[in-house]
Design brief:
mainly alpha, 6 helices, 156 residues
Length: 156
């Protein structure tokens, strides 16, 4: 019974997380469109994208190079011009980074995203696997803290 309840709670949280991520991405896109006037084929620079999503310019370039973010349109002089569709991928990458997903998992998630989707989103299976990994890590950290507290008690 407890397993069923935990599973139901996990499914509910996963649904809410997907909704929240999609809503946050739409809000970021709306804000960018209004702040930088992106409607009608306008672009934003890597500096503006970096500031908006909290990713360094180097990270954005790296994510593009390895395929987490699809290739971005460039000017004749090689400067990246991010379109609204590119920003959806940047938002996904920023969300995955905030959740501490490893690069391998990020790439797996990008590959799992259907090209037919309007907004790229995280796959529930990937989120659940990462959640399990974080819970295991938390247990390990809790155990290490207990051992450290015992050692500190012995010192006092």
């Amino acid at each position: 019974k407890q397993h069923f309840q935990r599973n139901a709670v996990a499914q509910y949280l996963c649904q809410k997380t997907r909704w929240f991520i999609a809503a946050a991405n739409q809000f970021r896109l709306f804000r960018l469109q209004n702040t930088f006037g992106m409607k009608g084929g306008k672009f934003v620079t890597i500096k503006e994208v970096s500031e908006m999503y909290g990713l360094s310019q180097e990270t954005l370039r790296y994510y593009e190079r390895i395929g987490i973010i699809p290739a971005v349109t460039r000017t004749s002089s090689g400067i990246r011009n991010y379109e609204a569709s590119d920003l959806q991928w940047v938002a996904l990458a920023a969300d995955m980074k905030r959740m501490s997903l490893p690069i391998k998992v990020m790439l797996k998630c990008v590959q799992a995203c259907s090209e037919s989707e309007e907004i790229p989103k995280l796959q529930p299976e990937i989120l659940e696997d990462h959640r399990r990994h974080l819970l295991e890590k938390r247990e390990e950290i809790d155990e290490n803290l207990k051992q450290l507290e015992k050692k500190l008690e012995g010192c006092l």
